[in-house]
Amino acid sequence: MRSVYFLSDFGLEDPYVGVVKAVLEQRAPGVKVVDLAHALPPQDLRRAAFALFEALPYLPEGAVVLAVVDPGVGTPRRAIAALGRRAYVGPDNGLFTLAWRLDPPRRAFLLQEVPPPLPQGVDPLPGWTPGSHTFHGRDRFAPAAAHLALGLAPEALGPELSPQDLLRLPLALTPGPEGEILTFDRFGNAITTLLQAPLGGWVEVGGRRIPIRRTFGEVPEGEAVAYLGSAGLLEIAVNRGNAREALGLKEGMPVRLLRG
Question: Quick one: which of 105, 78, 106 has its CA closest to 92?
Answer without folding.
Answer: 78
